[in-house]
Write a structure and sequence with these properties.
By secondary structure, this protein is α/β, with parallel strands linked by helices. Helix content is about 25%, strand content about 20%.
Length: about 350
């Protein structure tokens, strides 16, 4: 066997005729892209301790590869490292791996089981796509992201979908099938895989726990999805705004930029059922005048009355709201506000606002 090595980096493996086993020499810290690619006779590889990184397509199309020993020192295996390794049935992944890169085991048609090590946080798109004989999958609780089609085409996913409406591995919802148009995601689920509901015409209502922070990629193409419920709060499923709404609900972060009329409508609806929420109240008070002007524009009488009842409309702000209602010809709101002032606050100078407006 022969290797092209430069500064502890294995650039290329040069096989001997009919060579089936390779022991990579000690001292190698990185293996470059396609270093062993398309070595059709290679059956066994032993990699050295101290190896840190494996580039793209390192063993791609090594169709006879049956066994490989990877040291725990490896922290990065790049895209398509083992793509089309048809003979590979089992592999032990290094304990320090954090990301399963996209298409890592794409079309490994004899891979039968995979145990994702604790500490892996991300499984990218197509990682095990078309591993048609993959029957056993273990995901640790550390996984927080699963990309689209990561397990599509596997025997494991097909079997799970036949047995369960919700396919859950570790804390991840991989795939879901609506029951009577509804999917209720259990609280034990921490992450929903990308495209978990992809193009599902039967999904009409989705109920999710509050810690699900990113949903947009999961509901792509769900044209009949009407509502999403989170923490008991139901809002219209807007694919372009869903992530922002969930972020506001789950993280109590009300800073996302969006059209103010959409944002204020959502926040006032939330306030209607969560008026004791300290973060929400703090945001509303900070933007109180503009948000109340929105209530006046939308003629939200019931919400304004709630503001009366909790004492948020008072002597220091009511005149500005009355003036706004007069300026924008919101007569019903104008009467409501003036009546409240007359009954609960009183006029220092009766009719002052009207006199100023109409120069009486």
């Amino acid at each position: 066997m022969a290797f092209e090595i430069e500064d502890h980096v294995l650039i290329k493996y040069i096989p001997e005729p009919n060579e089936t086993k390779v022991i990579v020499p000690e001292g190698i810290t990185e293996i470059k892209t396609f270093a062993f690619g398309s070595c059709s006779n290679l059956k066994e590889v032993i990699l050295p301790e101290g190896l840190i990184k494996m580039g793209r397509d390192v063993f791609s199309s090594c169709r006879s590869l049956e066994k490989i020993i990877i040291p725990d020192s490896v922290i990065m295996m790049h895209t398509r490292t083992f793509m089309d390794c048809d003979a590979l049935e089992k592999i032990t992944l290094p304990k320090n791996l954090q990301i399963i890169k996209s298409d890592l085991f794409l079309c490994c048609k004899h891979l039968k089981e995979i145990d994702i090590p604790d500490g892996v946080t991300k499984i990218e798109s197509g990682a095990f796509h078309d591993c048609i004989r993959l029957k056993q999958v273990h995901l640790p609780e550390s996984v927080r992201y699963v990309g689209e089609q990561a397990f599509s085409g596997t025997a494991w996913l097909r079997t799970q979908q036949k047995k369960n409406a919700l396919v859950i591995a570790g804390n991840v919802l991989i795939k879901a099938k609506p029951v009577n148009g509804v999917v209720i995601v259990p609280d034990t689920v921490k992450t929903i895989a990308q495209c978990a509901f992809y193009n599902d015409p039967k999904l009409e209502k989705l109920v999710i726990p509050p810690h699900i922070l990113n949903l947009d990629g999961a509901i792509i193409g769900c044209r009949n999805l009407k509502t999403i419920t989170c923490e008991g709060f139901t809002f219209s499923a807007n694919p372009n705004k869903t992530y922002l709404f969930i972020r506001m609900l789950s993280q109590r972060d009300f800073s996302p930029r969006m059209a103010l009329n959409i944002k204020y409508r959502f926040l006032w609806e939330l306030f209607d059922s969560r008026q004791d929420d300290p973060e929400l109240n703090a945001y509303i008070k900070k933007h109180f005048l503009k948000m109340c002007q929105f209530l006046i524009d939308e003629n939200q009488i019931s919400v304004m009355k709630k503001l009366f009842s909790i004492g948020w409309i008072h002597k220091r702000n009511i005149d500005k709201l009355i003036s706004y209602a007069i300026d924008h010809q919101k007569t019903e709101m104008q009467i409501l506000l003036m009546d409240y002032k007359n009954t609960h606050i009183g006029y220092d100078d009766t009719g002052t606002i009207i006199k100023k407006k109409f120069a009486l």
